[in-house]
Amino acid sequence: MQQKQNYSKPEKKSVSAVNFRGGGFKPESYRWFGVTVFILIIAVAEIGTRMGWISSLTLPHPSDVLQTFGDLYRTELLFKHLGPSMSRLFIGSFLGVFFGIGVGVFIGLFSYVRSGLIPVVAAIFPIPKIALLPLFVIWFGIGEGSKYALIALGSFTPMVVATYGAVDNVDRTLIRMGQSFNLTWLSIVWKIVLPGALPGILSGLRISLAIAIILLVAAEMLGAEFGVGAYVLEAGSLYDLERLFAGVVILSVLGVCVSGLISLAEHLFLNWRI
Q1: Spatial contact of 101 and 213, defined as CB atoms under 8 Å apart
Q2: Closest to 55 measured CA to CA, from 64, 45, 43, 63
Q3: What span, in angstroms and rounded, lies between the C-alpha atoms of 91 and 8?
Q4: Residue-wise over 99-137: b if at least 16 C-beta within 10 A, else e?
Q5: Positive or negative CA dihedral for 239, 243, 245, 247?
Q6: Whole-model pTM above 0.85?
């Protein structure tokens, strides 16, 4: 007589959810932390200067700098200096970035253009653009033309390098996939190459605009009646630390605003990334 075998049901094991790891390297934004650090630095500077730990000959009271901002706003000197600077920065950087992206894309796509222009860009890139300001004054005069040219050249070369590097780093598997679907050359460039290169282009844009702000100050220190650079130069020659730091803070805020606009562009155009 066969003995019946007891087949017991397998015990159910508890299943734990696995966290999604696709965005493991995605940076998180903690804006409150940045604001806290900024306020902490200002507080330390204010307390240090008030208590005598920091000499007032080297660092003014942040509250006095804030009062200087108020005076600039009431007398409308803030807008008289900021308006020309914004105009020079926009026109010069627009020309440099526009032609830089165009030349960079052509270098990345065409071998003859790459062979002919990469040595030229490599020769121009290391030259300190501030050293070329006297030459631009001779060529374009002491007016706005020399300032536009300096800012445009300073933002042009890093934009070229960033753009053709971004085009080179586009995944070739995606390009071959587009070719297998019989996409035209123009469609591959428009739908695969340019979107794939956009993260690198925006990173280069961040660097180019930072360089443009630096060159803006240098250009305005020569032959400019109004502008943030002229304001900083005048305050430095008079050893007016409150006005000098007010001008530096204006440039810093301008850089933060530019960086914020680029971050917004990255959020709008690169939301396809995980």
Answers
A1: no
A2: 45
A3: 80
A4: bbbebbbbbbeeeeeeeebeeebeeeeeeebbebbeebb
A5: negative
A6: no
Distance CA 89, CA 212 (A): 7
Task: Give tens-digit pLDDT for 262-274.
Answer: 888 888 887 766 5
Q: Which residue is associated with the tokens 């933002």?
A: 155
Residue positions counted in the chain:
274
The residue type of 76 is: E
Q: Which helix (H) or strand (E) holds 218?
A: helix 194-220
Contact status, residue 270 vs residue 200, Cβ threshold 8 Å: no
> Which tens digits make up the pLDDT trace of 180-198?
888 888 999 998 899 889 9
- Local confidence band at 76 (pLDDT 50, 70, 90 cut-offs): confident
Q: What is the mean predicted confidence (pLDDT) over 29-50?
A: 81
Other CB atoms within 10 A of residue 238 CB = 10
